[in-house]
Design goal:
Blueprint (H helix, E strand, L loop, with lengths): L2 E4 L4 E5 L5 H11 L9 H10 L12 E5 L4 E14 L2 E15 L6 H10 L5 E7 L1 H9 L3 E2 L6 E5 L2 H11 L7 H17 L19 H11 L5 E3 L3 H13 L5 E8 L5 E9 L4 E9 L4 H14 L4 E5 L5 H6 L3 E3 L3 E5 L3 H8 L22
Parallel strand pairs: 1-5, 5-6, 12-13
Antiparallel strand pairs: 2-3, 3-4, 4-5, 4-9, 6-15, 7-15, 8-13, 8-14, 10-11, 11-12
Amino acid sequence: MLVEVKKSGTGKIREFSRTDIPAVQSLWVKAFQKCSAGLAPLSGLFEETFFLNPWYSADLPSLVHEDSSGDISGFVGVLPRPMFFRDDPIRVAVASQFMVDKSKQSAFASAQMLRRLFSGPQDLTFADGANELAQRVWQAAGGQLAMLYAPVWIRVLRPSEYVLAKCNERNFLPALDPLARPLCWAIDRTAKRWKRGPYWLPPVACDTESPTNEVILCSLRRFAGSPALRPDYNLESLTWLLEKAAEQTKHGQLRKAVIRDDNGEIRGWYLYYVKPRGIGQVLQFGGTASSIPKVLTHLYEDAWREGAIAVSGQLEPKFALELARSHCFFHWSCGVLVHSRNKQILNAIDRGDAFLSRLEGEWWMRFCDFRD
């Protein structure tokens, strides 16, 4: 996501260092229109995310833009991530917290920062959660939108409460909320049990197992399929990633589950955030081709029991049909942005032959806890 803040001056682009953290934190506070109160953890978060991650490499640094007076007026965070393209290991730079101080003298600073990033040694540069401004700058710098991964799917679980929540977001008839809620509960329970309706959930015995990271890793390696582009996890990196993801509070509690068949064999998994009266946000799910309907049913049922009004996630193209069959609807998002000098990698992404979940991007990062 790119946020711009007006400021004058021209300058240069250089590598981000630990001594820059206070200045970058101040820029972040200004960019996201937050007061500094309650933001003390931000300093540690910048260091943890961009210097202490398991994939840190000095030759893939985050970048800052300095204006003519030496003040930091732009930033793009970089996390190196290992992946496989076909059977060959490649390096990926995940871009995050992209922000600049906009000025007449440095009007092209944002594009220049991205061009500097794109010129690095990585095979692929990847970003998710982008807004329209970030998309335009990304494309101006030579990158592109990953069209098949841009849509977001939503499965409504409690239709009445979902509508009520949307009304509350727009401050539409707020006085009706306490009056309408008991009626919503009754309608939603009925909708869940009506087999011919789009909100019906078949009864399932939800898996209460809390899988270990080893089990999640095994599921990823076994059931992520064999797309041309796929992430390369080991136990250390996955453990760090899931621990950091669990610290996020904006979207609720991080829940992990594996789905087993009648013989006790694992056939799929899911990772998602959930909170009562909120929209559950899926980080990642997968399984065998025949088990995906069961995985989705378990996910929806678990979210219902936790009080969620809906579940949402980034589209995984190969699961689009099963998502549609389970009564999800889709809406457009700028979402996923990519850049690579390797046309074969871009072609694989363009045809949906890639495993690029929210866990590979920045969706799991705790920065969202501090944003307006």
